[in-house]
Design goal:
alpha+beta; 6-stranded mixed β-sheet; globular
Amino acid sequence: FIFYIYFFIIYVKMLSYFIFSYTFNKIKEQIDMDIHNIYARDLPDLWFQAVHDILDHGRRFVIDRGSYEGQTRLEYDYFSGHVKHPGTDPLIPDIPPACGIPNPVEHDYIYGGPGYDRAYIEYLMSARKEPGESYTYGERLTKVPLSGDKLSWWETGNTEIVDKREVDGTVVFEEDGRLYLNQIEWVIDTYKKFGERNNQLVLQIAHPSDLTLLDPPCLRSIDTRIQDNTLHFFVYFRSWDLWNGFPANLAAIQNLKEYMAGEIAVEDGQMIVESKGLHLYGYAEDLAKLRCLRT
């Protein structure tokens, strides 16, 4: 009889331990941030893996503010993707005909063509801004006004603080009496003049005052590094539409990287992309399931 009592006590303790352990792990899963990492061969491979995995690892929630406010979306807690050969063509997603769905990104949307007034590459690499646009990535990258303290230090030649360069019309240019900086050309020029090992050269899209915008830029920065005579990009988006925006953005950013590598005379390299807001909107979830052959 004593043996059975002892056995029962041990059983209850073990059962309590397993219940506690299971409950603790479930709570931990809900609290912990899930850092989702993908290693991909090329851009279409990265897109497919990200679409496939978000169906299992994305959290579903209602959008409190921003695009599609009030609707639901799946979103990674944090996403990191490492692309070994981002320059491998084609750059846009691979959609087998059997899926019966259109490609989320058309070739002509990236490079220009019938039906498109502006190629997406132009949106990224030129200062053109249409009425009603609060910003474009291209304007932020290629037409940055020098103002405030930086302009004062520039005008007084305070070379202990600023790297004052010639107003050459390309790297630094004047328009309507104001000085502007082209970040893309500045980074190219700096690498060519001073060499490869430099941790300062970040292409920056975000401004602190963007907090006042109802639709602030999703792309925040493109960090750069030249290593082993090869240019690599490190891209960060605050929020990122996985179905359409992700592949279009990366195709254009890859073209930018190829241009810069050519101008610097180095090889085109890898890409690491990150976001704390890579998501799939509700309207695209069924399309994602069709592409991944899931019901």
